[in-house]
Amino acid sequence: MLDLVGAILPFGLGVSVSPIPIIVSVLILLSPRSRANGIAFLLGWALGIAAVVTVLTLLAGYLPTDSSDGPNPVAGVLQLALGVWLLVMARRKFRPTESEPGPEAEVDPDTGLPVPQLPGWMSSIASTTPVRSLRSGLLFAGANPKNVAFAAGAALTIGTAGLGTGDVALLLVIYTVIASLTVAVPVGLHLLFPVRTEQPLRALEVWLMRNNTTIAVVLLLVYGVLLIGQGIGSF
Question: Computed from CA positions of residues 140, 179, 17, 187, in that sequence, does the dihedral angle turn out positive or negative?
């Protein structure tokens, strides 16, 4: 069981450290009714993660079970395909040059760097409600292709291991908890220390907006190579 936890851990962390849901959760925590909105977003995120990985694990259960006595080429082909998909997404996200900020771009007085501008849909989060926050959590967790690819990697590991229902359920819970950590931690800290966390949250928002593309590309490259390596090892 511990070896399977170790196998799904990287995929859960890959979902967890994705910049966009962290940025959205920070924006929600800086909005009016931040406590209710933060809890709703976290609930939607966890439910979306759990739903995707559960469905994919059930589908993976129809594949040949993993065996230490021989290869598992079906799972290997799927892992290779997922790995290549992640590398393609990394290539699409990569931009070799950055456009220079316009003359009216706001500059951070502390760092001298331009302050990243939020897209319109992110700016609208300032007026969000708990129901919309719940829906946003579900959407960001379940409709993100990168999250689906990571969940598929974990699902292939779980679904082809020949485990009983209880062990499968436990691994799914562990995956969901790991994949929700970087949303749960800021929400939990904000609930406990609403005043003291406001400034760090704003600083985190700016840093993530500035480095969003770099983080995403690195994650996609690392996990794409990881899945390709696992796929090759399955033959």
Answer: positive
Helices H, strands E: what count in the chain? 10, 0
| CA dist 29 → 15, 169, 187 (Å) | 20, 31, 7
Contact 9, 176 (CB under 8 A): no
Look over the chain and give the mean of its residue pLDDT values, rounded to a whole number.
Answer: 80
> What's the whole-number mean pLDDT along residues 4-28?
86
**CA proximity to 202, closest of 34, 41, 12:** 34
Residue 83, both tokens: 């790995």
In one letter, which amino acid is 144? N
Query: What does the alpha-carbon distance between residue 82 and residue 28 come to, in Å, rounded to a whole number?
Result: 32
SS3 of residue 198 by DSSP: helix
Residue 28 clears pLDDT 70, i.e. is over it: yes
Confidence of residue 103 (pLDDT cuts 50, 70, 90): very low
